[in-house]
User: What shape does this take?
Amino acid sequence: MKSIILAAGKGTRMKSDFPKVMHKICEKPMINWVIDTASLVSEEVGVVLGHGIDKIKEIIPQNIKVFEQKEQLGTGHAVMQCGDFMKSDDFLVLYGDVPLISEKTLTELIKKHKEENNDATLITVNTENPYGYGRIIRNGTKVKIVEHKDADEEQLKIKEINSGIAVFKGGILHETLKLIRNDNVQGEYYLTDVFEKFEKTGILNIKDITEVTGVNDRVQLAMLEKKAREYINEKFMLSGVTIINPENTYISPDAKIGNDTVIYPDTYINGKTEIGKKCIIGPGTSITECIIGDGAKILKSECENSEIKSNASVGPWSRIRPGSSIGENVKIGNFVETKKTKIAKNSKAQHLTYLGDATIGENVNIGAGTITCNYDGKNKFKTSIGDESFVGSNSSLVAPVNIGKKSLIAAGSVITKDVPDYSLAFGRAKQVVKEDKYRK
Ligand code: UD1
Ligand code: CA
Assistant: This one.
């Protein structure tokens, strides 16, 4: 099975500088929703692109075949652009602006198509509000589709609508598309005109209109965003994740979350984030592309492209920037920022600290207000701190600098030279006391 996704249109009604299919649902571009689902049911996936082709190419996986439709002359014309790609075996057509079609429904469609040995099999749905959609006219095993704009008064009353999603017998589409014309209200080559030329079209009439709702404007975009969020959150709740308030919890369709994890309100879990079991996440937390171990706690914080190992705790008000690795049982407290920093197990940085380009050993204590001075205005430099060392409060570690293991940095130090293992380093002016100076 091969699939093609039509996505060359501009999406005029979106009133956007970006092509329609790049608009996101749950932080994932519409076209990627369709590509990912198509990839689950077919060996090869192609897309027809036109408007914004270069921008779209950047966000889709490399293995997707791209066909260009230079002028948007209709959905039938769009399919024609993929030439021999549609020839071989059964061929599935999807629309880039119908993002929430499910793997389950597509599998059912393909099964029905094969069992009934149809020329084509189409997904339809019945709705009280068919406005804008093509209408289905059944006549025995034959099906005709009339576009909304071409329909007469009687046809407009039909409640069964075309989803646009259909599977075709190998080669049949290639031949039949040659026969269609553009003598309709829009002057376009409609893909929907091929059905009346087939002897036997099967229909899979589904119940849930959300799966086949097309996004033509931003009102529909918001509607599908809400639906998608509901589906995703429900899936996680049924798999054993507690979500305190699903209405303001935003989880990516590509996230993984272990059971008995509790997610507090106002939390965003983006991209391919993986969260273990028995974690406590949120409230007010945003996590993007992170791997989080079992039992971790992340409270009121932002984490991006990092790893947070089991039983570590982060927050409140911490910022874990890309390339950080927070070890087992590590405690990162309030107003602590890390960037490209690896912290080994049981270490602590609890207050008001910046750790950038640093490697920190086990059981290290980083005092309040510690700063790794990693940037000289031009270049970045590294800091390393050995196991079981103690950095006193308000220390500046001027990189490049290495602090050995079991060493002690006195509070308020500015450390510019390496400190060997088992040492004590001071780097501050000696305190001077002049007694009775006030009265004199
Ligand atoms: C289409 C169907 C309609 C169906 C509806 C379901 C046709 C003629 N009509 O109407 O029966 O009920 O979808 O949502 O197929 N595209 C191209 N090249 C083109 C034109 C369109 O790639 O030349 C792409 C668009 O980018 C879009 C998809 O095809 O992703 C559908 O096009 P759109 O113009 O939105 O069709 P609808 O009017 O919604
Ligand atoms: Ca559409």
